[in-house]
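Hey, I was hoping to borrow your eyes for a little while. I've been puzzling over a protein and I'd love to understand its fold better. The fold is given in discrete form, as structure tokens running alongside the sequence. I'd be grateful if you could look everything over and explain what you see. No rush at all, and the record is pasted right below.
>
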Amino acid sequence: MDRSQKAESVASLNAVFNEVGLVVVTRNLGMSVGQSTALRSKMSEAGASYKVAKNRLAKLALKDTQYEGLEVHLTGPTALAWSIDPIAAAKAAVDFAKTNDKLEIVGGAMGSTQLNADGIKALASMPSLDELRAKIVGLVNAPATKVVQLVNAPAAKLARVFGAYGAKDAA
């Protein structure tokens, strides 16, 4: 990688750090190409990205961003996962780490809030933004459904009573 490619890599990573909601630092301990490809596809399905970057270049890219505190985690064979959704990258990384012992969660940050490995795992256990939206829609729809059921209930009871009287008269 020549100097211009390094500068381009630092600039693109810096742009990413300025617009994402969460960055997770992982340590890959001898993952194969197939495992790395599976992780990348899992990340993209979740709406996140995963990149192995040189630690020195990543530290340069972190300068003047809210994620500057992540420099302490960038030692050894590390990789970065990020997403705009504050939960997607954490959830995908933790799910993959559960099934693959060669991926270790080191830490991360959500904005200027630094998180250790346990913080990332706790964040991954929270529902995603889409799941929360679905719950809210369900809660909003529930009262309307109950109102309709209450309005229809007396009519149904009357129909049953009339049906019972009709059956009694016929017998």
Summary: Residues 90 and 122 are 9 Å apart (CA to CA). The mean pLDDT is 85.
